[in-house]
Design a protein that fits this description.
de novo design (two linked rop proteins); elongated; mainly alpha; 201 residues
Length: 201
């Protein structure tokens, strides 16, 4: 009797594993982890940019008569962007996710305007510290774009699985809803890093 019980248990286990594999359960695990990993890299690059802002602001403040309103907007945008607490649950909360995106978009826009205004100040353009920070900012913006694109691709793969048949049944049973898509209203504008022209006088 024990042998029959063990055999049935083994058969049930094998069928369960096969059904979970066939219905995409393992794929959900893999793609969910991939999206979380990609999101972590996005956050790392946003933090890298936020860490640059105080040095940029300090350098620009040294320029006499620099537009204070522009500086204030950068400081406020950084404060807002870094004040939002991001958790793994943020990825599955469209409202929180959108709020975070908007804050990062505002910081991108404020930094972009700062760089445009800075072009009007020849002595600032000649400042080596500012030039170095500007190059670092440009590199960071590029890294943000790459990291975000990787995240978008990972979410796209996950969402296709969550919406396709028969894996959409698995998504409902195990609570794997589609993830929010990364999009910002001024996406094209903020994805363009500040241009660096060392030939300007």
């Amino acid at each position: 009797m024990k042998k029959i019980h063990r055999a049935l248990l083994a058969l049930f286990t094998a069928v369960s594993i096969a059904s979970l594999t066939g219905c995409g359960y393992n794929d959900f695990q893999k793609l969910d982890e991939a999206s979380k990993s990609a999101w972590s890299e996005v956050l790392n690059q946003y933090q890298r940019r936020a860490d640059l802002v105080p040095n940029i602001v300090a350098t620009v403040k040294g320029e006499a008569a620099f537009e204070q309103d522009t500086l204030t907007k950068v400081i406020e945008a950084r404060s807002k962007a870094t004040s939002i607490q991001v958790t793994p649950e943020t990825l599955n909360n469209p409202e929180a996710f959108n709020k975070f995106q908007q804050a990062q978009g505002e910081l991108s826009g404020a930094l972009s305007r700062l760089m445009v205004v800075a072009e009007r100040y020849p002595t600032l353009q000649a400042n080596q510290a500012f030039r170095d920070l500007r190059v670092t900012l440009e590199g960071t913006e590029n890294r943000i774009t790459v990291a975000r694109n990787r995240y978008i691709e990972s979410v796209q793969s996950y969402n296709v699985l969550a919406r396709s048949f028969p894996t959409n049944i698995t998504a409902k049973v195990f609570s794997y809803p589609p993830k929010p898509v990364f999009s910002v209203q001024n996406e094209a504008q903020i994805s363009v890093p500040p241009s660096v022209d060392f030939n300007k006088k």
